[in-house]
Amino acid sequence: MAEDMTIQEWQEAAKHVVAMRDDMAAGIRAKREDAGKAIDEALLAARAKRPAWDEYYLTLAKDVSDRASCPAGHVGAVIVSAENVIIMTGYNGSPTGITHCTELGCSWVSRTGSDGSERSYARHVHAEANAIARAARVGARLNASTLYVTQEPCPDCLKLCLQAGIKIIVAGTVKDRKWWHEAVMICNNASVVLRERQ
Ligand SMILES: [Zn+2]
Ligand SMILES: [Zn+2]
Question: What integer best gives the mean pLDDT of the chain?
Answer without folding.
Answer: 94
